[in-house]
Design brief:
429 residues, alpha/beta, Rossmann fold, six-stranded parallel β-sheet, 14 strands
Amino acid sequence: MGTGSVALSRPSPENISDSAPVRRILLLDHTASLGGGELALLHLVQALDRGRYAPVVVLFAEGPLVERLVEAGVETHVLPLSPRVVRSSKDSLGLSSLFRLRDVLETGLYVLRLARFLRAQRAALVHTNSLKADIIGGLAARLARIPLLWHVRDSITGDYLPRSVVMAFRRLCRILPNFIVANSHATLANLFPPSRPTPRARVVHDGVPASLLTPEPKVELENSRGRQSQGTRRVGLVGRISLWKGQHIFLQAVAQVRQRFPNASFQIIGSALFQEQDYEREVQALATALDLDDCVEFTGFRDDVPALISRLDVLVHASTTGEPFGQVIVEGMAAGKPVVATDGGVPEIVVNGQTGILVPMNAADPMAEAILSLLVDPAAARRMGHLGRQRVIEHFTVDLTARRIEAVYTQVLDLRAAPCANGLTTELS
């Protein structure tokens, strides 16, 4: 398959300062599926100041993200990598898979090809957006002698990745990139313990575009009580169907909630990715076993998630391992929805008891209790939704994210961070 290239969205001359030339930033992601990290990438490139930076997205596969980027007027290129490498799940990584000779050879040739492409693009900086892009794009950027920024969005821990991968990645983060952006303090702490901070890493939370900040709902308390008495409450979980996303815990909680609200409806919004279809079938079988088929809807993949969130009364997040951030939680709060969420990077988003309710991971009983408390008291739920929306406006808009990322770009580029003779990156002050 040949290279796809779509050149769009050049900055207009009136927005470009003569003293500050526009710098080309190449943003790399291994997948074009619409996962949380990829949606965050889409939002970011749309919000960057085109008078200072020209974002160019390079993807290692075709997919729906390509069309979204093109529609947004973002210059986009697809350099296909072996589908076997692209689609391998995090759970399948490890020494045995990392050292398959065929994969090593194909990936090595791809790194060389990507390095040539980066040089030809005259990139000022390479910004990688996913775990695989960090490694593959990082090696290519080093070969091309271009400054490298890693955007780490994954939880680099043993309960999320094989131990060998965790150790290798933590070592590489001290060698390969010039600078690291983490999507939460929890993510950063897994790379650099608080006792050993580094000046070449920073936390930048993801943000949502203004279009997702829905108008404040104007619903009278009496109407809310009326809806409750009619039993038309709707609770949903959004995210790809994956074991660590906890759809099975959500269903166990739903079985308890339904006893109190027999006419409530529930949605599992999302589909399986990365060879996780077996778990999806297990979750559907669990819904049948719990006698929930008549009240639980599996929507599959949807490209209108904001519209679906807008119809929910409660948004649930049920991850069974520490969530690196929780993009969908921010989207729910932006829509004025109260959230029930598990720990991880989430406490950096949700103020427990004010903008939502935090519950332990892998525990259906507390999750059910939290959902019930919001359904029983819609006025309190509405207050949480209001405060959550205000918190997003103050802390989690994509404009704030873009300005903070631009500050990192300026720091890396202006200080001309370069590899030292021993192969280590110069630390930025």
